[in-house]
Specification:
- The chain has 36 helices and 22 strands.
- The protein is elongated and about 120 Å long.
- β18 and β19 form a beta hairpin.
- α7 crosses α10 and α18 runs antiparallel to α19.
- The chain is an alpha+beta fold.
- Helix content is 48%, strand content 12%.
- The protein folds into three domains: 214 residues, Spore Coat Polysaccharide Biosynthesis Protein SpsA, Chain A (Alpha-Beta Complex); 387 residues, no CATH class; 112 residues, no CATH class.
- InterPro entries: Glycosyltransf_2 (IPR050834), Nucleotide-diphossugar_trans (IPR029044).
- Pfam families: Glyco_tranf_2_3.
- Keywords: Membrane, Transmembrane, Transmembrane helix.
C-alpha cells in the first residue's frame, strides 16, 4: 500500500446546487475514510466566502486560490508542486467517496506494481444504485465510449479490471507516473482527461485498472464534471469535440498530422450535415468552434505530442485490444434501439382507410372535368402566362439580378419565381406543360393534402375522407382553378401540408424542418398570409413555452428560413419606402371578379366565397345568389359545436386559425398594393379564406369525431353526408365550369405560347438578353414596358416592379424612349434603344372597343416608327405591328462586381438555410422511433394523452 496519499480537491462555485452543500459532504467523506489521506490540498477556483470558510476549517495541508475560470487540469497543475507522498488522489467538490474507497484503491496499487492508475466506480450522488461511470474506452474513430453508464448496479461489472481509461474523478495515480506523464492535458478543455491520462500511461508501459469495490458518489456539478442539462448541451458538445480533435492530432503519426489538420474544415462541414440529419442542430456551432480552436492551437498539439514521446515505451498496438470494436458498437446501438416504449401511434391506413381511393376518385373526376386541358401545350387566361423555354432560364428568373421586365431593372426575384422554376423543371423539355399538368392534378392533390392534414385531427377513416373532399371543394380553391390563379392554387395545395408538419413541430426536428420549408412556400405563394403566420407562430411559441416546456427552439426555427429567403425582398421594398408592397400577390397582376367591400361582398366573404359570383351560380341563374352562402352553414355549425366536445382545446385552436384567416381575408378585400399599368389590382382575399377553411374543416371533424359522432354513431355519417352534399351544391357550377362550352364560365384558354410575336419568341428562346419594347396607346396614356427574352412569363414577374408607386429613374428613361419613338420630330432614339440591348419594337394590336382618338394615336405612333431609318418593319402579327432594330444592338448591361457579389450572397444565403431545413426534415431511424411513441393526432384527447 502506498506510504502516503496526497489528495487534491478542486472546488469551483458553480452548478445548479450550491457548491458549499456538495463540499460539506465531500470533506466529511474524506475525513471518514478508513484509510485516511496523508495530505489534502484544496484549490479554490473563484472567491466564495462560504467555500473559503469550509476550506479553512477542513484541516487541509494547503489552500490554493485561483481564478474562477480555472479548469480542472490547470487547478491540479497548481497543486502538483506541493505534492508529498507516493500517490495522488484526484477529487472535486462533488466527489464523495465511500469510507472504504481509498483503502481499496490504494490496495490495488500495492498488489500490482505495474498499475499506474486505479479508477473507482462512480455512482449517482442521490441514487447510489445507479452507475455514472465505470471505465471508458475509444472506438476506431477516437470517440470516447462509456463502458457502463446509466445502468442499475447489480455487480454485473465488478469483475472488470483492465480498461483504456476512466473518468478523471476519483482516480488514484502513482506520484512518479503522475510526474512522468505531466499530469492532465489542459488543452482537452475539460473532457476526456481521464481517458487521455490512461492512454499515455498505457503507452508508457503501465496499466490502468478498475476497482469496482471502491465507490465514489458524484453529483455532476463540480469542476471536473461535464456540463449537464439541456441548456448546457452546446457547452458539453464543444468540450467533447475539442478533446476529440485535439487527441486525434496528438495521437496521429507525425506524417499524418498535416493531413489531419487540413481535413478538419471539410470534416466539420460533413459533420454539420450529419448533425442536421441526425436532428441535433445544437451541435453545429460547437462543431465549428471546436474545429477552429484546435486548428489554431498548434502549440498545444506540439506539447501533447512531446509528452507522449517523452514517456512512450510501447507501440500503439498495445492499446488496440482495449478499444471498442465496430461489432461491439453495433451491439450497443441495437441494444439501445431495442429498449423502447410500446408504440403509441396508430397505423396511417392510407390504403386500408380509403385515402388512396379518395385520391384516385378525385383524379378520375379531374380528368373528366379538365380533359380539354390535356391537349393544350400552354395554359393561358387570368393570371397565367407561359414559362421560359429552358430550365436554365427558369432559374435565372428566380435569382437576384436583372429582372426580365422593365428597363435596367435589377433587384431580388419573388420567391414565387423559384416555385415556378421548380415546377417547370419537372418538365424540362416543355416547362409550360407542367402548369397544364398541375391544373389537371390539382383536385387529387388537394384531396391528398386534406387527407393527411385530417390525420392530425381524427383517427376515423370516414372523417379523414370527408375532410379531404371538403378541402378540395373549398370555394376559394375552385375559384383559383376557374380564374387561372397559380399562386392561389399552390397556396391552397400547400396549406394542409404546412398544418400537418407545423402542428407537431414542437415534438421533433424533422417536422419542424419540414414545416419551415413549407412556410416559405406558402408565404411565397400568398404573402398576404404573413401577418396571420406571425400571429399564429407567436401564439404557438407562447403555448409551447408555457405548457410543453420543450421544443421552443424548434418553434423558433419555423420562421428562420422565411426571414432569410424574404430578406432581400423586404430590404428592397422598405428601402424604397413601399413596405405594403410586400403583401402583393406574386405572378401576373390580375384583377378578377373579386368580392367588394360592400355588405353583400362581406357576407359572401364570411361564407368563404372570394368572388362576387359565389360558386359560379350568378353566371348560371342571372339572379339573386345570397342563398348560396347558406349552404356552408352545416359545416360552420359543426365547427362551432366542436368547442362543446371533450376535445374543445383542439377545436378552439382550429377556430382561432379560422378566425385569423377570416380576419386576413376581410383586411385584404378591396385593398390594392400592385398595379397593372396604372390600374389598381386588389389583393386576393382567397388566401385568407383558405386558411380559414382549414380551421373550419378541422374543427368540424373534431365535432363529428369527439362530439355527436362519438355519442350517436349514426349521426357521424349523416352529418358528413349532409355537409358534403351542401358543399357540392354550393360549388357545383364552379366545379363544372370548364365543361360548359356554349357559355364558358372559366377564363382558362389554350395558350398563348408567347406574349410576343412568334418572330421575337424564336429569337429570344435561347437567351433573355434580347429586349423588346412594347408600346400600347390607351385612353389612360401610352402604356410601355420592356420584355426580355421570348415572352413575358409567370416566373419573370416582379412585385417590386408591380407595386412601385412613383416613377424611378429607369421608368423616366423608358418613358422618354417611348415618347421619342412615337414623336416624328425627335432625335435618333433607335440608337439609344440599341445601346440598351433592345432589338425589337412592338406596337400592340388595338383592343376591342377602341375609340377614334386612341386609334389615331396608334396610327400616329406606327407612322413615326415607319419613318425611323434604323427600324426595319417586320410586319403585322397577331400581337401587333413589329419592327426590328437594324443598328448594332449592344448586349444588355451586365451586373457590376458589387451586384454580382450581392447576387451570390443572396443565392447562397437562401439555398443554405433551405438546405439546413431540408436536412432537418430528413427522417432518421431514431426520429421515426420517437415518432411512433407519440400520438398522430394533436391536442389533448378524452383519454388524457397528447
Amino acid at each position: 500500500m502506498p506510504a502516503r496519499v496526497h489528495a487534491i480537491l478542486v472546488v469551483r462555485p458553480e452548478g445548479r446546487t450550491p457548491a458549499a452543500h456538495h463540499l460539506t459532504r465531500t470533506l466529511a467523506a474524506i475525513a471518514a475514510q478508513s484509510r485516511p489521506v496523508d495530505a489534502l490540498t484544496i484549490v479554490l477556483c473563484g472567491a466564495d466566502p462560504a467555500l473559503t470558510q469550509l476550506a479553512a476549517s477542513s484541516g487541509a495541508e494547503g489552500v490554493i486560490t485561483a481564478s474562477a475560470g480555472t479548469p480542472f487540469a490547470a487547478a491540479t497543475a497548481l497543486a502538483t508542486p506541493r505534492l508529498t507522498g507516493d500517490a495522488v488522489w484526484l477529487l472535486a467538490q462533488d466527489t464523495a467517496p465511500e469510507p472504504d474507497a481509498l483503502v481499496r484503491l490504494a490496495g490495488a496499487l500495492e498488489l500490482s506494481p505495474s498499475l499506474a492508475v486505479a479508477a473507482p466506480k462512480l455512482v449517482r450522488w442521490d441514487e447510489p444504485e445507479e452507475i455514472v461511470s465505470l471505465g471508458i474506452s475509444l472506438n476506431r474513430y477516437g470517440r470516447t465510449v462509456e463502458l457502463a453508464a446509466g445502468e442499475f448496479d447489480q455487480g454485473q461489472h465488478d469483475g472488470d479490471a483492465d480498461v483504456l481509461g476512466a473518468d478523471v474523478r476519483g482516480l488514484l495515480i502513482r506520484r512518479e507516473s503522475w510526474t512522468a506523464l505531466g499530469g492532465l492535458d489542459p488543452a482537452l478543455g475539460g473532457a476526456d482527461e481521464g481517458v487521455d491520462l490512461g492512454v499515455r500511461a498505457r503507452l508508457a508501459g503501465d496499466r490502468v485498472s478498475l476497482v469496482p469495490a471502491a465507490r465514489v458518489a458524484v453529483a455532476g456539478d463540480g469542476v471536473a464534471a461535464m456540463a449537464r442539462g439541456r441548456r448546457r448541451a452546446r457547452r458539453r458538445a464543444f468540450a467533447e469535440r475539442t478533446a476529440q480533435l485535439h487527441r486525434r492530432l496528438a495521437y496521429a503519426p507525425a506524417a499524418a498530422v498535416p493531413l489531419h489538420w487540413l481535413s478538419l474544415l471539410p470534416l466539420a462541414l460533413w459533420r454539420t450535415i450529419v448533425h442536421l440529419v441526425g436532428k441535433v442542430p445544437y451541435r453545429v456551432l460547437p462543431e465549428w468552434g471546436a474545429t477552429i480552436l484546435v486548428m489554431a492551437r498548434v502549440a498545444a498539439v506540439a506539447r501533447a505530442r512531446r509528452r507522449i514521446r517523452a514517456v512512450r515505451a510501447v507501440g500503439w498496438s498495445r492499446i488496440a485490444p482495449l478499444r471498442v470494436s465496430r461489432a461491439e458498437m453495433r451491439l450497443r446501438w441495437e441494444g439501445d434501439g431495442a429498449v423502447v416504449d410500446a408504440p403509441v401511434r396508430s397505423e396511417l391506413q392510407f390504403f386500408v382507410g380509403g385515402g388512396a381511393w379518395a385520391v384516385l376518385g378525385a383524379l378520375a373526376v379531374s380528368a373528366a372535368l379538365f380533359f380539354p386541358l390535356l391537349a393544350w401545350p400552354v395554359l393561358g387566361g387570368g393570371a397565367l402566362a407561359p414559362l421560359r423555354a429552358t430550365v436554365a432560364q427558369l432559374w435565372q428568373d428566380a435569382a437576384w439580378g436583372a429582372r426580365p421586365l422593365g428597363l435596367d431593372a435589377i433587384g431580388p426575384a419573388d420567391p414565387f419565381s423559384a416555385i415556378i422554376a421548380f415546377i417547370g423543371t419537372l418538365s424540362p423539355g416543355d416547362p409550360s406543360r407542367a402548369l397544364v399538368v398541375l391544373w389537371v392534378l390539382a383536385l387529387p392533390l388537394a384531396v391528398l393534402g386534406g387527407w393527411f392534414a385530417a390525420t392530425r385531427v381524427t383517427e376515423s377513416p370516414l372523417l379523414r375522407i370527408v375532410a379531404a373532399v371538403a378541402w378540395a371543394l373549398a370555394p376559394t380553391f375552385l375559384a383559383a382553378l376557374v380564374e387561372g390563379r397559380p399562386a392561389a392554387l399552390l397556396a391552397h395545395l400547400l396549406l394542409p401540408w404546412l398544418f400537418y408538419a407545423a402542428s407537431v413541430a414542437h415534438r421533433a426536428w424533422a417536422p419542424a424542418g419540414a414545416a419551415s420549408v413549407l412556410l416559405v412556400l406558402v408565404l411565397a405563394c400568398a404573402p398576404s398570409l404573413a401577418p396571420a403566420a406571425v400571429v399564429l407562430w407567436s401564439a404557438a411559441l407562447v403555448v409551447v413555452a408555457l405548457v410543453a416546456g420543450r421544443g421552443v427552439a424548434r418553434v423558433v426555427w419555423l420562421v428562420v428560413p422565411s426571414i432569410v429567403v424574404f430578406a432581400p425582398l423586404v430590404w428592397t421594398q422598405v428601402r424604397t419606402g413601399n413596405p405594403w408592397g410586400l403583401l402583393a400577390d406574386p405572378g401576373v397582376p390580375y384583377a378578377g371578379d373579386e368580392v367588394t367591400a360592400d355588405p353583400l361582398g362581406r357576407a359572401l366573404l364570411a361564407a368563404g366565397f372570394p368572388s362576387s359570383d359565389p360558386g359560379g351560380w350568378a353566371s348560371v341563374l342571372n339572379g339573386p345568389v345570397w342563398w348560396v352562402g347558406l349552404l356552408i352553414a352545416p359545416l360552420a355549425v359543426l365547427a362551432l359545436l366542436a368547442v362543446l366536445t371533450p376535445r374543445w382545446v383542439t377545436a378552439s385552436a382550429l377556430l382561432i386559425i379560422a378566425a385569423v384567416g377570416l380576419a386576413t381575408a376581410f383586411a385584404a378585400v378591396g385593398v390594392s398594393v400592385s398595379f397593372d399599368h396604372g390600374t389598381p389590382v386588389p389583393l386576393w382575399p382567397g388566401a385568407g379564406l383558405s386558411l380559414a377553411w382549414l380551421g373550419v374543416v378541422g374543427s368540424a371533424m373534431v365535432a363529428l369525431d369527439a362530439g355527436i359522432g362519438e355519442r350517436v354513431r349514426v349521426l357521424r355519417p349523416i352529418g358528413a353526408l349532409v355537409t358534403l352534399v351542401a358543399l357540392v351544391v354550393a360549388v357545383g357550377p364552379a366545379l363544372t365550369a370548364s365543361l360548359d362550352q356554349a357559355h364558358p364560365r372559366s377564363v382558362l384558354t389554350n395558350g398563348p405560347t408567347s406574349t410576343l410575336p412568334a418572330f421575337v419568341a424564336a429569337e429570344g428562346r435561347g437567351s433573355t438578353a434580347i429586349g423588346t419594347i412594347v408600346l400600347d396607346p390607351r385612353a389612360d396614356g401610352l402604356r410601355v414596358d420592356v420584355v426580355w427574352g421570348g415572352s413575358a412569363t409567370v416566373g419573370g414577374q416582379s412585385t417590386v416592379q408591380a407595386t412601385r408607386t412613383e416613377a424611378r429613374p429607369a421608368d423616366r428613361d423608358l418613358a422618354a424612349l417611348a415618347a421619342d419613338l412615337t414623336t416624328p420630330s425627335s432625335d435618333d432614339v433607335v440608337s439609344r434603344l440599341a445601346e440598351r440591348g433592345i432589338a425589337f419594337v412592338l406596337l400592340k394590336s388595338a383592343p376591342a372597343g377602341e375609340n377614334d382618338v386612341i386609334r389615331g394615336a396608334r396610327l400616329a405612333a406606327a407612322t413615326s416608327l415607319d419613318q425611323r431609318d434604323a427600324l426595319d418593319g417586320v410586319g403585322t402579327t397577331s400581337r401587333g405591328d413589329l419592327w426590328r432594330v437594324t443598328a448594332d444592338v449592344q448586349p444588355r448591361q451586365p451586373l457590376t462586381d458589387t451586384q454580382a457579389h450581392l447576387r451570390n450572397l443572396v443565392t447562397l444565403g437562401s439555398l443554405g438555410v433551405l438546405l439546413v431545413a431540408l436536412l432537418l426534415a430528413v427522417p432518421t431511424t431514431a426520429s421515426r422511433r420517437v415518432a411512433r411513441r407519440t400520438p398522430r393526432i394533436v391536442g389533448p384527447t378524452p383519454g388524457g394523452s397528447r
